[in-house]
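Async update (no meeting this week)

Hi team, since we skipped the sync, here's where things stand on the single-chain job. The sequence we agreed to prioritize is pasted below, unchanged from the tracker. I ran it this morning and attached the output directly underneath so nobody has to dig for it. Comments welcome in thread, and please keep replies under the output.
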Amino acid sequence: MTTFKMLLAAGAATAIAAAAHAGPTAKLDAGTVEGSAQGDVAAYRGIPYAGPASGAFRWRAPQPVKAWAGVRPATANGAACMQPHLSDDPWAQVGAQSEDCLFLNVFGPAAKPKAPEAVMVFIHGGSFIRGSGGVPLYDGTALAKRGVIVVTINYRLGRFGYFAHPALTAENADGGRLGNYGLMDQIAALQWVQKNIAAFGGDPKNVTVFGESAGAVAVQMLTTTQAAKGLFVRAIAESGGGTAAAAAIRGPGLTYETVGAAWAKGAGVTDPTPANLRAIPAADVLKTGPAGPMVDGVMILRSPGDTYRKGQQLKVGLMIGGNSHEASLFGENAAVAKAGLGSAYPAILEEAKAQPHPTKAGPESDLITQSAAIQSSRYLAQKNAALGLPSYSYYFDEVAGSDRAKAKGTDHGGELSFLFGTRIDKEVWDDQDRHVSQLMGDYWTRFAKTGDPNGKGAANWAPVTKTASPYMHFDANPHSAQPTPLEDHIEAAAVAVAEKAWDAQK
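Output:
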């Protein structure tokens, strides 16, 4: 072969190699991944942040990722965690499922930024039994265009993610960490961010964790566990309330251990060793049962609201709130407000009837929204502000133009398409919706970058302070508002009921 032909061959080989890896790449602690670019945003999907969670690793803390050789494709979502099919709603479009599901997705700049960008880690909702970080609704492209890195994660769900049994307690395979496997996954994902996000242009010292519904409860849990200390500096909790009492892993009465033991017996396990429990078919584990974070005595010492009451939460900035028709989550069942407000309910209902109703839903429904989501979350903002920490409260009240005339208010989860800029399948937006989506994404990303959602030209969002607790009324014309006497009465009653429940757990 002549020198000229050799040069031609070498050039062709180089071109082929370049074509084979045409997408953006990032070098991680476990190996290199190749994503895809759309305009100025690069997306990396299906990156493992922990090892397998099946077989001997079911009901174990997340395992390390095994390193890989060469370049791993990161252009498709990883498997969603095991879950029942209970809905075809946009947030439930999860795709393929597996027990081995600990994957995440990263959205960031296609070109290396001039300076490291703030990071936003999203924890999806779904009652701790459904959902996935790969749901199209949570595509992080629009937020990433604002100069942040967006990470969406999977975490174990249902009985795979939240389960306790005396045999697993006796085994104690992970140094006392038991029961809250989904929470352990979320912490593992945040640890992965600390190690790897710089490879995507992110700043590991400027991480905000944000979540909706069950994801917001998870955010609250993360802000109250020392196991997550140092992994993020800000938190955003959307529609997660703040005064619920988490069940205990063990102790007197009905606990996760007693429920787990009864379930295993019902599943036919006569000799409940850890190995026999882990051998139960996944289809049986998948059957619906109690699921969600528990007070485990190691990572979670008490309910989040109780931790805030005592001023023992992590010292991080907090943005928190809910939507105008959160009652939709509960089927507008008045029993929710009656339980949440206790003996004060009749008097508060009469007070609500005598005032203008904030939504088309009516006073009974509005009390569900206010007691379960709005005022209970404002309580956490107040307790965070009492420590001198940046704290912001909000009330979201925007509905897509196609639904505005008939909607009672913004349903539970209704803010998500506006935040991510991903119109869900049946929505038709008008200019007002596009305006609100732009505003919301701007406020959220400014908070993630600086701890203050305010910016030049934007309506002022007054912070919650030690002496005042205003909130942002979020619609086409956002404005800061002061709580009414009725709203203060709702908060006081909800907190009084919660404190009794928290104190009963001791």
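Quick observations from my side:
The CA atoms of residues 446 and 453 lie 5 Å apart.
Residues 1-19 have pLDDT under 50 and may be disordered.
Reply here if anything looks off.
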